């Protein structure tokens, strides 16, 4: 039953995009919003579905919630890593990783995201 729940949770492109960037690093919900250019409610809904399937875990730090992939689930279900590797051949997943990289290299943070009108474009 657990595998079926994981497959169902991964059956949405937005959730796959979330898993793709979280495969790289732990991220705050507001960072995910900016990187994936999604609304807060949309991100929360998808993260909740991933959490229900035990794909992600989160921790609270003051006013921010940080999300990462559950290492035990990744170990027990190697299909997740294989899926991410295969998806990274596609343009949208590559673009998400480029925005993540641009975000990280610019030294932005949760506090500065709200101030930035440009949502982590990969140019400039």
Quick gist of this model?
By secondary structure, the protein is mainly alpha-helical. The protein has helices spanning 2-9, 13-22, 29-36, 40-52, 71-76, 79-87, 91-105, 110-113, and strands at residues 27-28, 56-61, 64-69.
Distance between the termini: 47 Å
| Rg (CA only) | 14 Å
Identify low-pLDDT runs: none
Strand content: 5-15%
**Going by CATH, what is the homologous superfamily?**
Winged helix-like DNA-binding domain superfamily/Winged helix DNA-binding domain
Oligomeric state of this protein: single chain
Order of helices and strands: HHEHHEEHHHH
Mean pLDDT: 90
Helix percentage range: 55-70%
> Got a strand count?
3
Strand sequence of the main sheet, in spatial order?
A: 1-3-2
Q: Per CATH, which architecture?
A: Orthogonal Bundle
What does this structure look like?
By secondary structure, the chain is mainly alpha-helical. It has a single domain, classed as Orthogonal Bundle (Arc Repressor Mutant, subunit A), CATH 1.10.10.10. It is built from eight helices and three strands, in the order H-H-E-H-H-E-E-H-H-H-H. The protein has helices at 2-9, 13-22, 29-36, 40-52, 71-76, 79-87, 91-105, 110-113; strands spanning 27-28, 56-61, 64-69. A three-stranded antiparallel sheet has the order 1-3-2. The chain is globular and about 40 Å long. The model has no long low-confidence stretch (mean pLDDT 90).
């Amino acid at each position: 039953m657990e595998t079926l729940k994981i497959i169902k949770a991964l059956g949405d492109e937005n959730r796959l995009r979330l898993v793709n960037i979280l495969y790289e690093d732990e991220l705050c919900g507001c960072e995910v919003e900016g990187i994936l250019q999604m609304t807060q409610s949309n991100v929360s809904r998808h993260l909740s579905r991933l959490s229900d399937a035990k794909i992600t875990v989160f921790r609270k730090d003051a006013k921010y919630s940080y999300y990462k992939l559950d290492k035990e689930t990744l170990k027990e279900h190697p299909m997740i890593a294989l899926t991410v590797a295969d998806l990274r051949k596609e343009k949208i997943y590559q673009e998400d990783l480029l925005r993540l990289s641009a975000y990280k290299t610019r030294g932005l943070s949760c506090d500065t995201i709200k101030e930035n009108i440009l949502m982590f474009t990969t140019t400039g």
